[in-house]
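Project standup — Tuesday

K.O.: blocked on the structure for the chain from last sprint. Re-posting the sequence here as requested.
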Amino acid sequence: MVRRLDDATDMLLASLLAADGRATLKKLAEVTGLSQSAVQARVRRLESDGVIRGYVAELDPDAIGLPLAAFISLIPLDPAHEYEIPGALEGLSEIASCHSVAGDASFMLFVRVETPSALETLIREIRTRANVATRTTVVLQTSFERRSQPPDVHA
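H.V.: unblocked you, prediction finished:
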């Protein structure tokens, strides 16, 4: 289990790194008032504790040929196998995220594909692999998208 952040300095470091994963130890030290070695030790602990799960480059979906985004709700055809669904879909690279949800559906997927026909092909593959009915909502425009990060913390 990942530990919950309750230390204000760790929360600040996590917030700074969520905003800029390439922030230098020097910059982090300046903002927190700690030494670079103290910052490095805290960041390593945040990593080893699973608070920081990794560092990624945020890519423009249009630039990499994935302009079409959609949400796909999954309703299991056999409720006895409901929790096998994520494993059945794990290898599909078009799926950006899979969430267990409350409501009519059991899972909600966020997907990115090249074209409407690619979306149709993906939906067929999802239905076959996971034995589900689907309901798809195509994203017309994204006003904003945020990664998980702690609440605004000021130094």
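K.O.: great, moving the ticket to review. The chain has two domains: 8-48, 68-138. The chain has five helices and four strands.
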